[in-house]
Amino acid sequence: MTQDLITGPDGLARPLWASRDPLLQAYYDTEWGMPVRDERGLFERLSLEGFQAGLSWATILRKRENFRAAFAGFDPDAVARFGDADVERLLGDAGIIRNRAKILATIGNARATIELRADGGLAELVWSFRPDATPAPRALAEIPSSSPESVALSRELKRRGFRFVGPTTVFALMEAVGIVDTHLVGSHRRGTSGVWAD
């Protein structure tokens, strides 16, 4: 077993990042890499990945309930109606990341999500970039930070009016929602999404 995996007191092997923090461990054990195929779920994760840029995922995860409250449960229809007063409200909300560009991008991305419905919707678009094969990393250093598919999806999302959707952010989204499986070989979560056979 790789040194990047730690076997916990429960006998389950996890990567270092999911072994030290109970919040991250719960996220890793129950959520990360499991398929998300609904519009609201994908919009939320795309939004949070955008806010995460330059920060740690733990920071975002600790603030997730605050984000949900601030952004109307990530209902694209509600967020798309946000105006200047909402932007000012969000900039004054210490419970979230108060970054004007990311806030404006989230509102704009909600509008772009609605526009996508005429062409099958956000979930159909994102999942259409699933690769033919998924990585099988044995060490954290082997996990890619982008892929040809994430580059292509990033380009398409930008063409459709989305912002804060660079190839690395999009690859992180693809990992989080099960489009690729980058769980380390030997982890108790490897192959558990049902999307990829181990």
From TrEMBL:
GO terms for molecular function: DNA-3-methyladenine glycosylase activity; metal ion binding. One of its GO terms (biological process) is base-excision repair. SUPFAM superfamilies: DNA-glycosylase. Zn(2+) binds at residue 183. Transmembrane segments: none annotated. InterPro entries: Adenine_glyco, DNA-3mA_glycosylase, DNA_glycosylase, Tag. Keywords: Metal-binding, Zinc. NCBIfam families: tag. This is 3-methyladenine DNA glycosylase. It comes from Microbacterium album. The lineage of its organism: Bacteria, Bacillati, Actinomycetota, Actinomycetes, Micrococcales.
